[in-house]
Specification:
Blueprint: H1 7-63, H2 68-82, E1 85-90, E2 95-98, H3 116-120, E3 125-129, E4 139-148, E5 151-161, H4 162-213, H5 228-277, H6 285-314, E6 321-325, H7 326-335, H8 338-343, E7 347-351, E8 358-362, H9 363-380, E9 386-394, E10 397-405, H10 411-414, H11 425-428, H12 438-449, E11 453-458, E12 461-469
Parallel strand pairs: 7-9
Antiparallel strand pairs: 1-2, 1-5, 3-4, 4-5, 6-8, 9-10, 10-12, 11-12
Helix pairs in contact: 1-4, 4-5, 5-6, 6-12, 7-9, 9-12
């Protein structure tokens, strides 16, 4: 795998590209800024010194004492201090004093450069270039008029080689580049560490994901830190745990459905085979055929429950909401449990908040909810136990509760009681009928209605309570 195609390579390349680009831009800006700064500073110093020289010249003129040798000496000192060649030009434009003895050949030459006239007009000028061809290298020239009582008697020109300024800038530029280079090296190491810090957990997640895809849900990631990557690792571990639970649920479902389907199929096969073999006499065949019919109905109900739950969860089962009287619906459902209630000698209590309670919902689906909750209550209520069906009103809702006496639901089962195929028979009774789909169907129906349901352990049993929208 090429590094440029990996996330690490992309992050590292992007970060380094941004930093290097920023450094290059910064170096270019600093280079220009340094050069402008030194040139401007040099220009200010030259202007300041030019003013002093012209003032000395004016003083000598007033006093009548003009010591050219002293003036030359001062100009030589100033030349070395400023690293600038200094000329004094008379009113006719001829050079009559220079600061460097090696340039005495220039004395007496007449300047014809165009900008000279501006200086003799009393203007202070700044010129960059080779001063009309007088210099081979570009220079920074300051032209300062020598004026006495408003009349120009000459001009002062100071020439500083620009390459000298640039060499100073280059030295500073080298120092800057060295600092930027060290900063770049530190940035390189930090970005390398940061990129690895981000990508290593992702790489580990990728490897663990492949292991989980193979069916091993026990693998976990080490959660280090509290950033988004650590949060993602925590979520990944949570996903693995949930997948593990789902896998256990799937295995339990396979075991349950195998048992639940095998029992009726074995009965059907046995009775049909006995009838065909003549083992069961003619006069008893009707009885056993009815048993076979009951078993096929049971198989049909199991299949329909699975299909209905799948449709509900996928949103394919459309609700047909209308207003109806829920108390009457409760009584009709209770009638279907009369025989089972009497067989277990259960005391059934119906407590209604009002004589008539109109609700807005899918009548058929709510009937299924009440039926499943009552079936669950009758299944787990002990012999000679009690069942309560109660309604209460609050605001625009009616609360319908189905309670039964008996053992409470273990706390660990409360977390999974709404999961499909979850069966609590081991702890709540010996009735193994059903596939653990009843409460899942109840939960999904009420969820599709936008209603809520809760389960809670009471001192004398368990209560399931759900809501419906009132229709006045």
């Amino acid at each position: 795998m090429k590094i440029s195609k990996t996330l690490f390579g992309k992050l590292f390349t992007a970060y380094m590209g941004i930093i290097l680009g920023s450094f290059i831009l910064l170096a270019a800006i600093l280079s220009q800024a340094f050069e402008r700064y030194f040139i401007n500073q040099k220009e200010e110093i030259m202007l300041e010194q030019g003013e002093k020289i012209t003032m000395q010249y004016a003083k000598a003129y007033y006093t009548g004492i003009m010591d050219l040798e002293q003036l030359k000496f001062e100009m030589e000192v100033l030349d070395k201090y400023l690293d600038s060649m200094i000329w004094i030009v008379d009113a006719n434009g001829r050079i009559y004093v220079v600061s460097r003895t090696e340039n005495k050949s220039w004395i007496g030459q007449k300047l014809t450069f165009a900008h000279i006239s501006e200086v003799f007009e009393g203007k202070i000028v700044t010129i960059k270039g080779n001063f009309g061809g007088y210099f081979k290298e570009p220079v920074l020239t300051i032209g300062y008029p020598i004026q006495i009582d408003g009349k120009t008697y000459g001009a002062l020109f100071m020439h500083t080689p620009i390459p000298e300024i640039q060499r100073t800038v280059q030295e500073l530029y080298k120092i800057t580049l060295l600092c930027l280079g060290l900063s770049g090296l530190l940035a390189f190491m930090f970005i390398y560490y940061l990129s690895r810090r981000i990508t290593n957990p992702l790489k580990e997640m990728n490897e663990v994901a492949k292991v989980i895809a193979g069916g091993d849900f026990q693998r976990k990631l080490d959660v280090i830190g509290e950033d988004e990557v650590a949060e993602l690792a925590g979520s990944f571990n949570y996903m693995a745990e949930e997948l593990n639970k789902l896998e256990e649920l799937r295995r339990g479902f396979i075991a349950n459905i195998s048992h639940d389907l095998r029992s009726p199929l074995t009965s059907i096969q046995g009775f049909v085979q006995a009838i065909l073999d003549g083992t069961i006499p003619q006069e008893k065949q009707t009885k056993y055929l009815e048993i076979v019919l009951d078993e096929t109905r049971r198989l049909t109900k199991m299949t329909n429950d699975i299909m209905d739950l799948t449709k509900m969860e996928s949103g394919q089962m459309e609700l047909k909401k209308d207003q109806f009287e829920v108390n009457d619906l409760i009584r009709r459902v209770l009638d279907k449990f009369e025989k089972r209630v009497l067989d277990k000698k259960v005391e059934l209590n119906l407590i209604l908040a009002e004589e008539r309670t109109m609700v807005f919902a899918d009548r058929e689906q709510i009937q299924r909810v009440i039926y499943n909750l009552l079936d669950n209550a009758v299944k787990f209520v002990p012999e000679e136990g009690k069942i309560w069906v109660e309604t209460t009103r609050a605001s625009n809702k009616v609360f319908i509760s189905v309670k039964n006496s008996g053992d409470p639901i273990p706390q660990e089962d409360l977390l999974y009681i709404w999961d499909r195929f979850h069966k609590g028979d081991k702890s709540r009774g010996k009735d193994k009928t059903g596939m653990g789909l009843g409460l899942s169907i109840v939960k999904q129906i009420l969820k599709n209605h936008g209603e809520a349901i809760k389960v809670e352990n009471l001192e004398e049993g368990v209560a399931f309570t759900f809501t419906l929208e009132l229709k006045n």
